Amino acid sequence: MTRLLLASAPDFSTHYRALLQTRGEAVDGVEAVVSQIIQDVKARGFHALADLSARFDNFALTPETVRIGPAAVNAAMAACDRQVIAALELAAERILDYHLRARPEDARWQDGQGLSLGWRWTPVDAAGLYAPGGLAAYPSSVLMNALPAKAAGVQRLVMMTPPARLHENPAILAAAKIAGIDEIYGVGGAQAIAALAYGADPIAPVDVIAGPGNAWVSTAKKLVFGTVGIDSVAGPSEVFIIADGRNDPAIIAADLLAQAEHDAVAQSILFTDDAAFGQRVLEAVDLMIAQGGAGPEAAKSWPAYGAVIVVDQLVDAVALSDQGAPEHLQIATDDPDHLASLVRHAGAIFLGRHSPEALGDYLAGPNHVLPTGGRSRWASGLSTHMFMKRTTLMGTGLDGLAAIGPAGVALATAEGLPAHAASIALRLKAAGLDPA
Amino acid sequence: MTRLLLASAPDFSTHYRALLQTRGEAVDGVEAVVSQIIQDVKARGFHALADLSARFDNFALTPETVRIGPAAVNAAMAACDRQVIAALELAAERILDYHLRARPEDARWQDGQGLSLGWRWTPVDAAGLYAPGGLAAYPSSVLMNALPAKAAGVQRLVMMTPPARLHENPAILAAAKIAGIDEIYGVGGAQAIAALAYGADPIAPVDVIAGPGNAWVSTAKKLVFGTVGIDSVAGPSEVFIIADGRNDPAIIAADLLAQAEHDAVAQSILFTDDAAFGQRVLEAVDLMIAQGGAGPEAAKSWPAYGAVIVVDQLVDAVALSDQGAPEHLQIATDDPDHLASLVRHAGAIFLGRHSPEALGDYLAGPNHVLPTGGRSRWASGLSTHMFMKRTTLMGTGLDGLAAIGPAGVALATAEGLPAHAASIALRLKAAGLDPA
């Protein structure tokens, strides 16, 4: 099947809609099992954790051994390549700096009627971070999930990770140390999320849970939402690239495959105004896959969900991109800011020919946890806000009470809430003011 | 059963924990039915809406009559008390002003390594607002849910409300008009939420859904979360009041009952350092209930969940309040800012003797949609943010690429993602730079 679509073709909009909508997200049957796991951990605490870990992970947990202590963390640091440690440290510094700038600001003012108004942001007490094992065990994700919490000022950071193959990937614990996480437990799966939400002595509960995971972990996060905050409901991820014909086809092919190699339902779409260039990119993608230049998942996701779309003018690609509301949007042109200013929906925009998504995945500074599957229409990437909460502030003396109190009494009365009305009216009367 | 607890009593902490935890939230069996309703609307659109409205609301919906047009809205405006319209207009002006100030700001800067970084906020395209019928039909809620979306710059605001008894409460449509909502449909229940999330021609889908509702509506919002954004998962609400003995017991009693009259599981707790004052407040509450000075729900919720707690010093009340993480906290003392500065968790703080929650419920300016049931530990009230999303921005020239590219290549390689590494390394090589 050809992956080159012409936006001017009569059936294009039908094809394009199908391309955006065919990636499956739901996994049937997971929710019922995960719901049982959560109830079990809520009811039986650590006993349930131990039973579930034995059953699902074939791993014996005890309250004494569940915590991964400083000795194991230091050993992991020592086992890592020095260059990787240096790269993680540079990444951590840049990510922390970006997220410190993203701390929301407090405000306080007096209004014209004499009321003092405002708000203040404070960090949550404790944040939990899930770090998956296996395929998706990325030290960069540890940094991206932990450092916004650090920037927020969260005092207690807890990491949960499946213990079975942790020794194969020492960079996970190294990243945790570099990010300043000092409470790490070797627990994986939905039960780890349940323990974070409800506690499982010696594991104390947290307030917000972040971090990627498989369908079990994601479903558990969705189910505990409301008891705790969660970072997002994540689905298959995607990159859209808008590129003119003056790019190197091999470089744009690498960019498309960098997304495609994430997993079998990842989506990479190139929009270009140069059909010949698009054709060369397709060839470069095929060559790179054939030569093993991309991870094995790319050979599944690219043929299934990848495409090169030829538009008359690059500006036409903006509307098509907005229709998909991509997680990542690269704009590889000489004046990327112009096209970017027209974009309505994107989790992150990468501006210019030298700015691939991969830099953002690791160490540009912005977060790589971003709204997927069209959710950038309404959702934002993980940031410092997620680990803070806002308290609104309101205070008034008699002037403000006199100015707005009678209208408050009128509204309370109209809503049939007499104690609301009395709460304002009694204060007006005590001050010798007319409540009507 | 006495409602006066001494914080110094040996069994106090057990009693207090029970007081905070006994309010039920879950309604068994709702989720399965709501899930079916949502699937039905998703599959059959307006046909499902019509069938469900006939079955649950005994109301015949047609595509031609589902929309509540300008004539009905203007008739409702005319049917309202002039004083109520004026009060709604004052409230709308104040709420809009507060939420315009709360618009998050964009940022863009160059960092030391030559990267251009930043973010920008944009409004969602469309927001949906649910306005319940029956007991909870409050025009103030229409303002509080719609005006943050207006402040965000949302172009399309859609309101759904059960049509059956709308004519009894013209202030609902008046508030919608004052808030600038111009697309209103007479649909209630879980099916209204499903129509907002998935569309039901002629009702186009929205991006974010806000607004209060019963267990069916709340469950539907939770289930569509992820497809669209939702304002919050709300539970039973509460007020905590910290007051010294120099307040008028009748006024503090009215404040407690203003919360208690909301519903049968509302909670009102007074903390005071003056036991005699606490006793007088209890008597004033009983008298006010006996005289019909509070709505009928107060007679259920106050005996079940209300309390006066006597502390040695008012500062001790702050830690107890944080344990409950209340939705609303009133501080009725001469120096409320001092105690407020010590508070870690509260959705909204009302400062001073003249600042009852009721002013905030209607027209102080901050939102009255706030995190309930202890959720102020991690969640914030409804605000302008909820109707906007952030796009992160990153761009670099060759200097920035040279500065951070090699570390990116090292991390991609360590994570086993060759196309990620190639995406950076090919750019470095093309510029004559060393990717290692």
UniProtKB/TrEMBL annotation, chains A, B:
Residues binding NAD(+), per UniProt: 130, 191, 214
CDD domains reported in the protein's UniProt record: Histidinol_dh
Co-factor binding comment: Binds 1 zinc ion per subunit.
Pathway: Amino-acid biosynthesis; L-histidine biosynthesis; L-histidine from 5-phospho-alpha-D-ribose 1-diphosphate: step 9/9
Pfam families: Histidinol_dh
Enzymatic class: oxidoreductase
Gene3D superfamilies noted in UniProt: 1.20.5.1300, Nitrogenase molybdenum iron protein domain
Classification via PROSITE patterns: HISOL_DEHYDROGENASE
Any one of the GO BP annotations: L-histidine biosynthetic process
Active site: 327 (proton acceptor), 328 (proton acceptor)
EC numbers on record: 1.1.1.23
Essential cofactor(s): Zn(2+)
Keywords: Amino-acid biosynthesis, Histidine biosynthesis, Metal-binding, NAD, Oxidoreductase, Zinc
Catalyzed reactions per annotation: L-histidinol + 2 NAD(+) + H2O = L-histidine + 2 NADH + 3 H(+)
SUPFAM superfamilies, per database record: ALDH-like
GO cellular component: cytosol
Binding-site positions, Zn(2+): 259, 262, 361, 420
Signal peptide (residue range): none
Keyword Metal-binding assigned: yes
Record-stated family: Belongs to the histidinol dehydrogenase family.
The protein's name: Histidinol dehydrogenase
